Amino acid sequence: MQTGALQGQTIVITRPIDQAKKLASLITQAGGEPVLFPLIAITPLDDYSQFDAVISQLNQYDWAIFISSNAVQNGMPRMVKLGIPPALKFAAIGHQTAKELMHYGVRNVLTPHTRFDSETLLALPEMRDVANMKIAIFRGVGGRELMAETLTARGASVYFAESYQRVN
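RESULT FIELD:
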């Protein structure tokens, strides 16, 4: 007999299947019954020419901001092939994304410590004074615009490095 805070509860997980496994395990441990029902899948791009054009200029960038672990997994292998500029600074939306960057040898990643979202990353002192800086935002196709809009309003030149897509 199951016991726990979620005993008797059925919880539908709509995240992509690979990202749902850990949550499903936690739900089971808490006595619940997870139902995996992914509504989207994360897939590589059909064409990486735009992405490659951005990363080919990374030696001119000040910051590389990674919005998700998906952006790391789909973008870093191509970056590593080109070589990561030693002066490039890295930021990540959260600890899991920073941990993914560590798999590629990236250390000293700027990461929020409380909430893990664009707003909290943008509130950090390093993201406030970005005038005249060149910043690449690594994300999926069609992600939120808040990060780019805010950094642009603060005087940075912002470019998207879209490295994956979401498919229904």
